[in-house]
Amino acid sequence: MTAPEVQAAWASTRDGLESDGDGGLRLTFASLTVGKKAAVLGAAAAVLALPARGVVAAERWAFGHGQARAAAGKRFPHTGPALAYGVLMIGLWLVPAPSSDPA
C-alpha cells in the first residue's frame, strides 16, 4: 500500500466516524458495516452464552457426582460437596475487588 492509498483509506474511515465533541473521533455501532455488525453481535452472544453453558455443565457434573455417591451408598451424598462449594464461594466473596486507582 502506498502513502496516498493509506491517506485515502484513513479519510474514508474518518468520514464514517462521529465526533465526540472534544475534537476526537469515535466509532459508533451505526457506522459499522453489516458484516462488522454481525461480528460484533456474534461476539457479544458468545460472551453471554459461554459462561452460562459453563455453569450448566458444572451443575450437571456436580449433580451426577452426587448421584454416583448416592448409588454407592454414601450417606448424605450431596451435602459434602455442597458444603465444599459453599466454602469456595465464601472464599471468593472475601477476595477484595480490584482498585480503580492507578497507584
Order of helices and strands: HEEHH
Helix coverage percent: 55-70%
Which class do the helix and strand fractions yield?
mainly alpha
Ranges where pLDDT stays below 50 over 5 or more residues in a row are none
Walk me through this protein's architecture:
- Keywords: Membrane, Transmembrane, Transmembrane helix.
- The chain crosses the membrane at residues 38-56, 76-95.
- By secondary structure, the chain is mainly α.
- It is 66% helix and 4% strand.
- It has a domain at 25-94.
- The protein has helices at 3-16, 34-71, 79-94, and strands at residues 18-19, 25-26.
- A hairpin with a 5-residue loop joins strand 1 and strand 2 (25-26).
- The longest helix is centred in the middle third of the chain and has 38 residues, at 34-71.
